[in-house]
Amino acid sequence: MNKETDMPCRVSLDAHRRESTPRLSYSGRLVVGGILLACTPLFFWGGPGYYSSRSFQAAWDLGHILFFLLVTFCLNDIRKEKEAGSEIVYFLAVFLFVFCTGLLIETLQMLGSNRSPGLDDMLRNQLGCLAAFAFSNRSALFAHQPARRLFRGGVVALLIVAAWPLSRALIDEFLAARQFPVLADFETPFERFRWVNIDQLQVENEEVRHGRRSVRVQLSTNKYSGVALFHFPGDWRGYRTLHWSVFNPQDNPLPINCRIHDVHHKQNAMEFSDRFNQQFLLDSGWNDLVVPLEKVRAAPKGREMDMARIEGFGLFVIQQPRAQAIYLDYVYLGR
Questions:
Q1: Which of 100, 155, 242, 277 is most exposed by smallest CB count within 10 Å?
Q2: Number of domains making up the chain
Q3: What is the DSSP letter of 232?
């Protein structure tokens, strides 16, 4: 068959496939529409907080993909048949619609809520749109099966990349629970992500106090420079001491500050007097530091630290004259 007779046949088959694919029932459309309507406020309210678990944060981010997948799926479902050759135009129109909707959401977040707009969220929106086109039987975007398979394969690859932060978080949260009362020893692959300011952290085997690895902490000349452990089991009841080791490669002593707080700290305006604070002087070489947890319990002014809900442990220096590095290893609780 020549190209002139083959093309109308192929278009006819695509149209027949879309026409024969069952559409959502009226009640089905109401359910999906209700889900989208109920989820729309979540772009502006609710969701993970600053100290929420990494898995919750990552799963929440994936909601962008699911939301715009459903939006695109609904648009594909209610779309009337178009004349041949309009599929790419329709795809571009929907893709642009999703982009503009996402841009509007990010702008409203910046103007009217405490959310921070992000390019990553915009990309997840577009990925949801692509996924709907890739796996919807009502879409005939690609007439040739090899092109369709390539498109689907690319979308699957992008979905795997998007799901990786959630997978990584779940793996490390499982490992953290098994390692407890060790809070960080840097022997497993993803422990660096338990900390904030991870760009300042580099896992090394150059200077090690315990096991095979430690982490190099790059300190700057900012007023406050350091790292904080945010993601860890927070029930410290039954333990008496907190231990960690720090290597100071400099010849001169280095003052370093430790802070510990619980979940109630932010309700008390994160006042200095509402947390545990202590300064240590690091000698050259390895320093094995210990904090009695009874002192941590008694630290907040006018109340006791909630030892069942410890939320943060931080180490920082104040206004150093030059940038320098230290090594941190083996953070654990002792009985």
A1: 100
A2: 2
A3: S
